[in-house]
Every structure is written in structure tokens, then in C-alpha cells.
Amino acid sequence: MADDDCRGAWPMVVEVGQCLAAGGGGGGGCCLLTMREPVCVKERTKNGEKKAKSAEGFGARLPVMRAKRSDPFSAIRRRRAVASFVWPPSLAISDRILQIVFTVIDADDQNERKPYIVYMGASPVEQTLTSMAKDHHSLLSETIGDETVATESKLHSYGRSFNGFVANLLPHEANQLRHKEGVLSVFPNMVRELHTTRSWDFLRMPLKGTKRNLKLESNMIIGLLDTGIWPQSPSFNDEGFGPPPPKWKGKCVLGGNFTGCNNKLIGAQYSHIGASPNSSYSPVDEEGHGTHTASTAAGVPVKSASVYGIGKGTARGGVHSARVAAYKVCWGGSCSEMDLLAGFDMAITDGVDVISVSIGGTPTQLFQDSMVIGAFHAMKKGIFVACSAGNEGPHQMTVKNIAPWMTTVGASSIDRQFVSGVKLGNGETIKGIAVNTFSANKKKYPLISGTLAANASQPYRNASACDFDSLSEEMVKGKIVYCLGKNDQDVTLYNKRVAGLIVSRDKDYDIPSSFLIPGTTVSREEGLDIDRYINSTKKSVAVIHKTRSIKMADAPFVASFSSRGPQLIAPNILKPDIVAPGLGILAGYSKLSSMSGHPDYDKRFVDYKIASGTSMASPHVAAAAAYVKTFHPTWSPAAIKSALMTTATPMKVNTEDMQLASGSGLINPTKARDPGLVYDINTSAYIRFLCKVGYNSTTLGILIGGNKIYHCNNFKPTKGIDGLNYPSIHLQLQSNVTTFSAVYKRVVKNVGNEKAIYNAEVVSAKGLSIKVDPSTLSFDKSNQKRAFTVVLKGKFDHKDSYLLSGSLAWKNTKHSVVSPVVVYRYIPPEW
User: Fold this and answer.
1) H-only helix segments in 241-298
2) Beta bridge partners of residue 157, listed in sequence order
3) What range(s) does the Inhibitor I9 domain occupy (predicted)?
4) Domain 416-551 has CATH 3.40.50.410
């Protein structure tokens, strides 16, 4: 392709060197705004000439850079900073900069068939699964032009809860399908990642004393889209359970080493569209993740549960009388979007009340995202969906699962910490963090650093980090080895017959990890103390103690790994919505996966495991939603979400990220049972919101389904800058804005006492003014609604200031209905 070939037909021309000013060279791609159009990217070759490549836009994927080969832009990704463009201006949502990641498509990619999801909105009421599948085949045959190739290409048809299919397509075929009548979106099948018992007591839901509606709780069905389930876990014992509720329409699929369901675990299915041929085609959990999340949400009480005596107590779920339905959509540690959509398709039709999904990927345009699509159709059916926020903290702009009809959950601590201390030969004791099940056989072992044990024959390996083959086996044999922080040092050292491992991590590292060998994690400062001790004597010694649990006085806090906001897809919606326990959570596990996740080496197969991640937080919120729903079975998902958010416990203010990390705060399920007021949102309100952010009538008609014709002009325009009756208030600004003013319209519904009066109380940081009109709301009866307006005004006094926050609370003698208020200004990184 000649240089001039980039002109004319291409919507934008960009030189890679210009896009990635910090990285230099060619490589991965850059960030600019394209909506399905191709992009022409020019790269300079070694001799200075320009060559052109085509690139395909995949929507608003943010904020992760994609880099091929050696990834020279890893430093950029670590800082979560991305070069940004707004083009064309008419496509900028809410005047914010959208960050779009695209990948360069070489000629070979143009001729390679890959799975694409063809999403066609709601399922036609008048059609059966069979007739929809036939229509899918006809559409595919028409596009490809070959009946045989079309048959071979089609992988799966959706149709139980929404309409669509999966097929192996060439890029130009995918592009043709995008323009076919009835097609809402076509997007590549991406692979998503898993976001990997004291927590309920910490949330003020003790086993005894918590008010419960056990009859309705037993009719609650929690669906989990995850790695499957281990049915033999004691957490799913069905003693005392009657048959499944009559509304249950699901099934239990047998196969492989899956032993079957019972009256507690009432359903187990799987989707294997994206699974490798070596996967076990059954709902059985081979990784432990799905069993852990399911037992966290709804496991029955099991006394004396522990991990080799660590964390001993009663393990239980938040709604232990509820039923569990497991949908295996993840295989080998990854989850394809086509399987994820199939899981939603099954769960919605089967009759679940709540769905928990501890899976995430880079945010995209709303309806090119399987999580967004699945959750939207679940919401339409009255199903509450809790999703994990992601594990890429503490960096900002890393939050996942950002659609307003999802409840996005960050991870907090509880008041228990697992410590595995180190005692040095000089008498100093260091509080390490780990789940170390090994007891020391000696009082002291020789201690050496990776740096001092370097393998002289491998000078280019990083011995200080104990990289593979970087250490001398003779020098580390029988010794505790001190390494600088990274992953899998225990795997590297496993066959070197070491006595133990001490890993020095960043100061904010707070995850109690499990190691293949005796090991613990210390902070960077503590690591420096250890290193100084090693270098101060010729006979340094130490011992690593078995893990014990201690009480944390500063709990709760947001876990270091929990992804932070803001997000740019729906920029004036604050995400995450809320936080829940996700640090050091003890719950059920699969006997097919070892403690450390390395079954070939690690033979510790346990009933319970201590794990951390926003994966662990999401089922806490799913259970809390089910708990609230047992008292208010007719409430919408948005009303339940509002109750959880407005009654949450505010987190300690951190000047670095504040509510960008915690949203409304830590869930308080028993308080959410009686919130006083709720901010409700129905499907029509979401349609008006979608109209506001630029979706057209055709798109909405396909999305909603039915015979009704949807025109944005027929709906009342949304009021306020965000266009949605959301329980939190958020404003995003461009970097050059210093003064601001924004208006928000809200409606609350009285779900408390018939007659009630609420007064507004605002708290705000310096530089932020929050005005509420009217400042008093009076209610004469239940379910009565009242509207009010919030006006934000303010000024950023310093060029480096980027965050102002406050809160609005509606209060009476019994209730306090609190909404966080956050104003964020994007400050571009200094390259």
C-alpha cells in the first residue's frame, strides 16, 4: 500500500510515532476514536520510508495499551496513561476524551477465520430456537456466499434470552454483517479474565440474630457464571432443603467427573464454544474459583472450616438458605465472550433471581461487550447482576464492567489479616503476609539473597528477582532465599531444595498468597531491612513461621489490587458502585485444584481456601441483593442497587483516589433492608439514557425487541447532565477546565414509613459547592415519589488538582440516604 493510499477513503491517518510518543518505534497500535470504521496507520521502516497498514477499530477499549513483541510500552500501561484523540468531534460522548485501542491487521489476518459474536438484540417473541437458528444460518450463507462454508463456520446460536450467533468469520465478512438489517453489533470474541468465615460477621450479618425471611430465601436462586462448581463441597450439602422452587426451569448436566446436583445445588450447566479440546466437558470446577464464589454467596454453614488450621471458624454464605445454579463459562483460567453470553442466555431463561459474574475485560462500546449485553437482558427480566470491578489497582481508570444496569463491585478488607512472620538472626521480627501452611522444623535456617546466589553462567538473568535459572542451586540449597517482588518465585525455586522464600513487594501489597514452599511476603521497606541484615553478617539466618490470623485495627480499607475509576464509556456514571470483602476470604474450593494452583507440584488439595480479588467481592453483593429481595420481592434491580449503595458505610478518605476506589462505600446488607428512599430506574429510563449518549432508534428497536417502534424523539428527553436517576453523582471534566457548573435531576421513592419528612444535608470539599432544591422532601404515603435538583459549582485552584468530592444525604430520625458526589478532571500524564 502506497503512502497516498491512506488518503480519501480512510477516516483518519495517524503515524505510530506520533501516537505513542513515549514508546517510540512501531509495535502495538495507538489510541483514537473510531466507530467501526477502519483506520490507516503509517509506520516508519528502518530506512525512513513510510508503509501503511489497515487497522480495525474495536470501540472504546480503555485504558489498556496493546503492544506486540517485546511490549516496549509496558511503562505506559503501568501508569494507565494512554495517548488520546477526539475524532470526529461529533462522536465524542459527553464532550469527554474517548480512548480507543486498535490492533494492526496484517494481510495474513485478513485471510484467517476467527470467532465473531453477531448480536441481534432481543429474541423475537414469535420465533422458536430452531427457527432463529435457521435464520442465523441463512444470514451467514448470504454473507459468505457458500452454504458449506457457512455451515462449517457457524459455532453457536443464542435465542433463549436474546438473539444472536457465533461464527468463524473473515474481517470483511464481519464488516458486511454489521450493515445487515436486524444486526445490532458484530465484534470479535475476546478472552476475559477471572477476577480472583468472617466476612459476613464483619458485615454485621451474624449467623444468629440476623433477621431473615427463610421461606423466601429458600426460593431465591443465585446464578454464578464462573469456572463451574465442585458438587462434593460441604458448602453445598442439601440436608434440610426441599425440592427446587417451581419457577426453576434449568437443568443439571452430567458428564466427566461431575457427580450431579441436589436440592441445594439445583443446576449446573456449561458452555464450551470457546473451550480447548482438552477441557473436561462438564460443569465440574477444575480451578476452584467458581466453587469459592458460589460458597461465598450461598454456602451452607460448615463448622470448623479452615486451611490446615488457619482461619478456623464457621464458613457460610450470606444467604445460606438460597439455591445455587452454576454455569461454567471459563476454561483453563480464561473466559471467552461467546461462552459468557451463552451463560447469560441460560441463566436468564432458567429463572435465577440474582447473577454474580467475577469476570472482566477491557471496557468497550456498550453493545460490543458480552457482559453489558447479558446484564441488560437480565435487568429487563428483573434479575440483579453483580460484577467484579477488576484487579488492576491501585491505578486509576482501570475499572471494568461499567454499564449502569450492572452493580460494579470493588474489594475491601475485613478486620482479619493472615500473617506469616519472619524472625531474623539479629532478633528482629517482621510481619509477613501469606497463607503459609508449613511449620518450620528448625529454629533457624541459613538466609541468602538472590543477588548473592547468582548463577555466574547466566549473567543476563535477574538474580535479585530469582528469575528462572538465575540462581546457583548449590548456593541456595537448604536456605531461605530473599527475592525482589514478582510472581512465581516459588515455582522457580521448587526443585532447588530451598528451605523457604521471602518475597519483597510494593508497599501497598496486601494479598495473603499461598506458596508451593514455605514462604511469605514483606513490604519494600521491610525487604530493605532484611537485605541490610544479610549484608551485615557472614552467617545470616532466619525462620518463617506458619500463618496465624490477627485483628486489623484500620479495617475496612480498599484492597490495593481493586480497580479504580473513573471510566470513559459512560463518563458521568461513578464506578465502582460499591465495595465488599475481597481480601483474604475463606470459602469452599475444588479438590481438583491444589492450594497454589500448581497441581503437578502441589499436593495440598483442600475443601476450603483463602483467596483474594474482586472476584470474592462480587458474590458478597449478589448475596446481599438476594437478602434484600427476600424482604422486597417486587423491587427492581435498580431499587435493590440503590438500597445497597445509599446505606453503605463510607470508607476512610484517601486523598489519592477517594470514592474512585470505593464508590458509595462498604455494603451493609441489614441496613439495606430498610433504606427509607430509593432511586429507581426502569427499562424506559435506560432507553432515554442510551438516546442521550447517542444510540439511534434502529439500534434501540433491535435491542429492546418486540413490535414497538422506538424513536428517541418519542421519549421525554433526559434531564440533568448524566441523564439517569443514579444513586451517586459524578462529573467528569476535560483537563483544561478550571471552573464548572452542572445540574442533576433526581427522583426518590418513599419505601419507608407512610408519612415521612427528609432534610438534605451536604458535605463538600473546599472548591466544591453542592446546592439542593428543594432541601426538604415530604411524603404522605408509601411508594410516593418526589423530585429534586442538585447543582454543582466549583473551581480547581491548582493545575495539578484533579478530584473534588462530597456527599448528599437525605435524613430523618430513622434513615440516612447517602449519595457520594465526585468531580474528576482528567490530568494527562507527563511523558
Assistant:
1) 289-298
2) 165
3) 116-195
4) no
List pLDDT tens digits, range 204-238: 777 777 888 888 889 999 999 999 999 999 999 99
Question: Which CATH superfamily does the domain covering 114-189 fall into?
Answer: Peptidase S8 propeptide/proteinase inhibitor I9 (3.30.70.80)
Residues of the chain with CATH 3.30.70.80: 114-189
Q: Assess contact for 451 and 470: CB atoms under 8 A.
A: no
Q: In what order do the strands lie in the sheet with 803-811?
A: 729-733, 816-825, 803-811, 756-764, 776-779
Q: Can you tell me the distance from the alpha carbon of 316 to that of 264, in angstroms, rounded to the nearest whole number?
A: 13
Answer whether 186's CB lies under 8 Å from 117's CB: yes
Of residues 514 and 461, the one with the higher pLDDT is: 514
Give me the CATH topology for the region 193-408+579-634: Rossmann fold (3.40.50)
Cβ neighbours for 702, distance < 8 A, ≥ 6 positions apart? 120, 121, 122, 182, 183, 184
β-sheet bridge partners, residue 419: 433, 548
Q: Please tell me which residue in 135, 226, 602, 722 is annotated as part of the active site.
A: 226
The secondary structure of residue 101, as a DSSP letter, is B
In 494-572 the beta strands, taken as DSSP E runs, fall at 500-504, 519-522, 541-544, 548-551
How high is the pLDDT of residue 192?
A: 86
Q: With 60 as the cut, is the pLDDT of residue 79 above it?
A: no
Within 10 A of 688 (CB to CB), how many other CB atoms are there?
18
Contact 272, 281 (CB under 8 A): yes
Please give the share of the chain, as a percent, with pLDDT higher than 70: 83
For residue 90, what pLDDT is reported?
A: 24
Name the band, by pLDDT with cuts 50, 70 and 90, for residue 78: very low
Start-end of CATH 2.60.40.2310 domains in the chain: 677-825
CATH class of 677-825: mainly beta
Angle between helices 289-298 and 614-631 in degrees, nearest 10? 30
Which residue has better confidence, 96 or 634? Answer: 634
CATH 3.50.30.30 domain locations along the chain? 416-551
Composition of the chain by helix, strand, coil, percent to 5: 25, 25, 50
Cα distance between residue 432 and residue 441, in whole Å: 19
With beta carbons less than 8 A apart as the criterion, state whether 227 and 287 touch. yes
Nearest-5° angle of CA 732, CA 735, CA 739?
75
Strand order in the sheet with 677-678: 677-678, 739-750, 785-795, 768-773
Residue 475 grid cell: 548456593
84 is catalytic: no
The C-alpha cell that represents 722 in the structure block: 448524566
Q: How many helices (H) and strands (E) does the chain have?
A: 20, 41
> What are the DSSP calls for 104-138, one per residue?
EE-HHHHTS-EEEEEE--SPPTT--HHHHHHHHHH
Model confidence pLDDT, tens digit, residues 458-471: 877 899 999 988 99
pTM, whole model, 2 decimals?
0.83
- pLDDT at residue 67 tops 50: no
Tell me, yes or no, if 289 is annotated catalytic: yes
Torsion over CA: 41, 43, 49, 53 (sign)? negative
Q: Cα dihedral sign for 408, 158, 35, 725?
A: negative
Pairing of strands 541-544, 445-449: antiparallel
pLDDT for position 80 = 32
**How far apart are the C-alpha atoms of 600 and 36, rounded to whole Å?**
45
| Tens-place pLDDT, residues 369-400 | 899 999 999 999 999 999 999 999 998 999 99
Backbone dihedral angles phi then psi of residue 319, each to the nearest 5 degrees: -120, 80
Delimit the CATH 3.40.50.200 region(s) of the chain.
Answer: 193-408+579-634
- State the catalytic residue, choosing from 615, 618, 642, 728: 615
- Do β-strands 785-795 and 548-551 pair in parallel, antiparallel, or remain unpaired? unpaired
Q: How many CA atoms lie within 13 A of 1 on its CB side?
A: 17
Length of the chain: 831
